[in-house]
Amino acid sequence: MTDRETIRLKLETWRDELLGRANRIDAHLHRDEPVPADFAEQATELENLDVLFALDREGKKKLAAINTALQRIEAGEYEICSCCGQSIENARLHALPTTDLCAQCAKTQ
Ligand SMILES: [Zn+2]
To answer: Tens of pLDDT along 8-21?
Structure first.
């Protein structure tokens, strides 16, 4: 298996995990349950929703980055820095599979 395939599999596994989690969060956010009558319970419920919304936002951002990386692999431009056009270091791609910048450009941005 080539490096690129290893990374692609990693990205796809990661994406599937995030999608699974997003679906569970969605199911939780859209369930039909009566609002608790007790004020303290309402507050707890709202805090839980806040945490879920934050997770959801984070997850969606990561998903978008993963999809972009997968598209870049498809297009054959995965290891090309989107800023300077030089190739991105292999070790960097392994450590940060969703990056589209070489170490030098990431430092200066
Ligand atoms: Zn660069």
So the answer is: 999 999 999 999 98
* Digit-coded pLDDT (tens) for 18-63: 999 888 888 877 777 776 778 788 888 888 888 888 888 888 899 9
Distance in Å, CA 77 to ligand 1 centroid: 13
Report the pLDDT value the prediction gives residue 34, as an integer from 0 to 100: 72
79 HSE (CA, 13 A, CB side)? 13
CB 82 within 8 A of CB 101: yes
For 74-90, what is each residue's pLDDT tens digit?
999 999 999 999 999 99
Helix residue spans in 30-81 (DSSP H): 39-74
> How many whole angstroms from 45 Cα to the centroid of ligand 1?
46
Output the CA 99–ligand 1 centroid distance in Å: 11
Q: What is the CA(58)–ligand 1 centre distance, in A?
A: 26
CA of 55 to the centre of ligand 1 (A): 31
